[in-house]
Amino acid sequence: MDVRAEILDLKLRVEDLETTAEQSAGLDRQEDLLREIVDRSRKLQAEIAAVKAQLAHAQVEIREEFSAVGTEVAGVRRDVSGRPVAGGAEKLDIREEIAVEFGAIRSEIEHEFNFLRSEVLDLGIKLERLLQRTPADDL
């Protein structure tokens, strides 16, 4: 399941739990919802840890690829140095273009990760608040 959808679904369930907690009715329903939320939160935390590990691995691979591309670009520059540019066209620095693209992709990934982290923190705060309201014996 999509992590973003899972988080949003959990937030809806927490809000439902808060509503039923305020009505002080349906304790069994509250317990079931709370158990489900806790289980799903643990699963999400494991999934987020796996995503972090994948991102770290991807970053290492990207660094290696950029290093290899940098080496190739340096070789191409050596080959074409001293040759006049045909038609007076401007030279394009491939490394700068790659750096801009990489920056955009990194920004998107960082934005998505920050969103997910924020949602999980918000969910954790709500769960802590609910756990403080609900006696531990009832679970």
What does it look like?
It contains 3 helices and no strands. It is mainly α and 139 residues long. The longest helix is centred in the middle third of the chain and has 54 residues. It is rod-shaped. The two termini are 27 Å apart. About 4% of the residues have low confidence.
Helical content stands at over 70%
Mean pLDDT: 78
In total, the number of strands is: 0
Distance between the termini: 27 Å
Shape descriptor reads: rod-shaped
Subunit organisation of the chains: single chain
What amount of the residues lies in strands?
under 5%
Radius of gyration: 25 Å
Overall structural class, as computed from helix and strand content, comes to mainly alpha
Pattern of helices and strands: HHH
Biggest pleated sheet: none
Runs with pLDDT <50, length 5+?
A: 85-90
- Count of DSSP-assigned helices: 3
Topology record:
Layout: H1 3-22, H2 27-80, H3 94-133
Helix pairs in contact: 1-2, 1-3, 2-3
Index terms:
139 residues; coiled coil; mainly alpha
Write a concise synopsis of the structure shown.
It contains 3 helices and no strands. With 139 residues, it is mostly helical.
